[in-house]
Specification:
Blueprint: H1 4-13, E1 20-24, E2 37-38, E3 48-49, E4 53-56, E5 70-78, E6 93-96, E7 108-111, E8 115-118, E9 121-124, E10 134-135, E11 146-148, H2 156-164, E12 169-173, E13 177-183, E14 187-188, E15 199-200, H3 202-213, E16 217-224, H4 228-235, E17 243-247, H5 254-262, E18 266-272, E19 275-276, E20 280-286, E21 289-294, H6 298-316, E22 326-331, E23 335-336, E24 342-352, E25 355-360, H7 369-374, E26 377-381, E27 387-388, E28 393-398
Parallel strand pairs: 5-6, 13-16, 13-17, 14-15, 17-21, 19-24, 22-25
Antiparallel strand pairs: 1-12, 2-11, 3-10, 4-6, 4-7, 5-9, 8-9, 18-20, 20-21, 22-28, 23-27, 24-25, 24-26, 26-28
Helix pairs in contact: 1-6, 3-6, 4-5
The chain binds adenosine monophosphate (AMP) and magnesium ion.
């Protein structure tokens, strides 16, 4: 039997990072940068005003105060998006708007709140030092500055600096295409009437959602009946994918049958992982594409996806943050399970004054999808532990924000 960590490492050893592609800036959010982005010009390109107010020479207003305003003749106006009409003459002021280029000769802006206009002049009621309310050319980026490094996940802020640096597209790692194949005679699609003994194919939807959340693109292979021809037919399309994820059939050995049919094209090992839920796991390759065979039980399937498939997808995208945050919490429930299995309970964690506390999401059966829907974390009962009493410290994996 493999430990969870051993099984994950074996899988990670078999997947590599994908190639890069050009992505329009507008579609790059959430993607992983595969290049170094540098500024080609100074940003901002010209010194401009940080305030609505009056461009002045600081020394002209050195004596200004609320009780003794300095009066400067007003010589025109400059708005954002246009060049100043003329340089500033000493002893005068030019009205200026936020973002407008500062006229040559001016070295500060007095904000409008500290002024009043009167008969073609402006009364300045506050002194300013040189540089006040100016945004200097190059104060955001200098030509040649590193804007973003490879491996960065492109955020709205990164998009902003890349746009400012003049980039219309970015070189990002390709998103992995993931073939999702569900197997089982009992499965019907959402919305189809259920005959006795049939169930809704929930894994087709949960796994697709999990793939997308991990940055993958879903190639939905639908459902295959538990017949080797059907499974083999679906797997023959695997060459279009970067990863195949299947659910079901791993314990009853459906793939054993498939192996005979596809001969050299599939290589599949059946693993027993010291894990609950999700003990049986298949791993191998179809036509050179890695395949992870998840258990069919809806909760096992998602937990095993989380522990094995998600890290593989993130590795393909060269994501550095492959692990979700792990935190320590106090358990409100007693956790128990067989000591030879690592157990992942579903929990709801809450922040409290003295740390995080976590309670279980009710019935922990591997068919109880509700336990997954309600959860914001997985609660780990480590190998060789057997029991952690209520009030004890537990490690949790944050799946959704803990409040
Ligand atoms: P299996 O791994 O195929 O033996 O399936 C184990 C359990 O999970 C059985 O109760 C199946 O009915 C159920 N199951 C398998 N595949 C799915 C699926 N795609 N959606 C929902 N339940 C499933
Ligand atoms: Mg099945």
């Amino acid at each position: 039997m493999l430990s969870v960590a051993q099984a994950r490492q074996r899988i990670l050893d078999q997947v590599g990072r994908l190639a890069a592609e050009d992505v329009p800036l507008r579609e790059a959010a959430g993607r992983v940068l595969a290049e170094e982005v540098r500024a080609t010009t100074d940003v901002p390109g010209f010194t401009n005003s940080a305030m609505d107010g009056y461009a002045v020479l600081a020394r002209d207003v050195a004596a200004a105060g609320p009780a003794n305003p300095v009066r400067l003749p007003l010589r025109g106006e400059v708005r954002a998006g246009v060049a100043p009409p003329h340089p500033l003459q000493a002893g005068t002021a030019i009205r200026i708007m936020t973002g407008a280029p500062v006229p040559a000769g001016a070295d500060a802006v007095v904000r409008v709140e500290d002024t009043a206009e009167e008969d073609g002049a402006v009364l300045i009621r506050a002194s300013v030092s040189a540089g006040t309310s100016l945004r200097a050319a190059g104060s955001d980026l200098r030509a040649g500055d590193l804007v973003a490094a490879p491996g960065r996940v492109v955020s709205p802020g990164v998009i902003g600096v890349c746009a400012a640096a003049g980039r219309t597209s970015l070189r990002c790692l390709r998103r992995p295409s993931v073939m999702v194949l569900t197997t089982g005679d009992e499965l019907r699609d959402v919305g189809e009437p259920l005959e006795p003994g049939q169930i809704v194919n929930t894994n087709r939807y949960t796994l697709a959602a999990a793939v997308e959340e991990a940055g993958g693109l879903v190639l939905d292979a639908g459902v295959a009946r538990d017949e080797r021809e059907q499974i083999a037919a679906a797997l023959r399309q695997a060459a279009a994918a970067d990863l195949v994820i299947s659910s079901g059939g791993v314990s009853m050995g459906a793939y054993d049958l498939v192996r005979d049919l596809l001969a050299q094209e599939v290589r599949i090992d059946f693993w027993q992982v010291a894990l609950r839920p999700g003990k049986p796991l298949a791993f191998g390759s179809v036509r050179g594409v890695p395949l992870i065979g998840l258990p069919g039980n809806p909760v096992s399937s998602l937990v095993a996806f989380e522990l094995f498939a998600r890290p593989a997808l993130l590795k393909m995208q060269a994501r550095e943050d492959r692990e979700r945050p792990r935190l320590w919490a106090r358990t409100e429930d007693t956790l128990s399970g067989p000591p030879h299995l690592e157990q992942y309970f579903r929990g709801v964690a809450r922040r409290q004054d003295d740390g995080i506390s976590v309670r279980l999401t009710g019935d922990q059966g591997s068919h109880v999808l509700r336990s997954m829907a309600d959860a914001n974390c997985l609660v780990i009962l480590p190998l060789k532990t057997g029991q952690i009493p209520a009030g004890g410290r537990v490690e949790i994996i944050e799946l959704a924000p803990i409040r």
